[in-house]
Amino acid sequence: MLEISLRRKLISTALAMNELGLNQGMSGNISVRRADRVFITPSALAYAQCRPADIVTLDFSGQAEGRRKPSSEWRLHLDIYKNRPEAGAVLHAHPSWCTTLACLELEIPAIHYMVAVAGGDSIRCAEYALYGTRELSEHVTTAMENRRACLMSHHGMVCFADSPEQALALAVEVENLARVYVQTLQTGSPQPLGPADMVAVRQKFADYRGDS
């Protein structure tokens, strides 16, 4: 994809986060990896005002290039890419239901088979640390071991996928799972699926994608 198209795709995905209710105002961020560079949304700029030239590029040492500062969570994005070579795009947002569980420091157990879309039999909640810090990045890296998404305690959620479009779709699914889990907690005692059930689901997902 041409660089200008890539920059436009990041902006359109960021706008879609707000339109879909995954994000509010200037919070959240999205990035994409291309070879040895990461393209990321800028800090303190409304997505509606963002232009392709506002997208910031980073190398893997954290050196930024562009007319604006990178998102305050740039370190989080870089560390996910460093630890997960299969990650092509990273999305961080503050969706209401995910954030509700994150504020309660709760993970999402296997209350529905679609929890496996995040790679495991739960969607963990990373420990709290101040936003933009190395400590937060380390907590998220731990929570995302063998996972493609996690909640962030008292903060929001983050996920990765092959492309911005797929990361957005995964974020939507995780937010729906969070909503369903909160609703089940309000109405009863949800019974998670067992480990064998989730292994079977993950295998079926892998067969569907052609991973096996």
Structural class: alpha+beta
What is the spatial order of strands in the main beta sheet? 4-3-2-1-5-8-7-6
SS field, number of helical segments: 6
H-E order: HEEEEHEHEHEEHH
Question: Given this structure, which CATH class is correct?
Answer: Alpha Beta
Distance between the termini: 27 Å
- Quaternary: single chain
- What integer value in Å does the Rg equal? 17 Å
Task: Note down, in words, how this protein is organized.
The chain has six helices and eight strands. It is of the alpha+beta class and 212 residues long. The chain has one domain: Class II aldolase/adducin N-terminal domain (L-fuculose-1-phosphate Aldolase). A hairpin with a 5-residue loop joins strand 3 (56-58) and strand 4. Helix 3 crosses helix 5. The longest helix is centred in the last third of the chain and has 24 residues, at 164-187. The two termini are 27 Å apart. The mean pLDDT is 94.
List keywords for this structure.
alpha+beta, L-fuculose-1-phosphate Aldolase, eight-stranded mixed sheet, 6 helices
Secondary-structure map:
Layout: H1 3-19, E1 29-34, E2 37-40, E3 56-58, E4 64-65, H2 74-83, E5 89-93, H3 96-103, E6 125-126, H4 134-143, E7 149-152, E8 156-161, H5 164-187, H6 195-209
Parallel strand pairs: 6-7
Antiparallel strand pairs: 1-2, 1-5, 2-3, 3-4, 5-8, 7-8
Helix pairs in contact: 2-4, 3-5
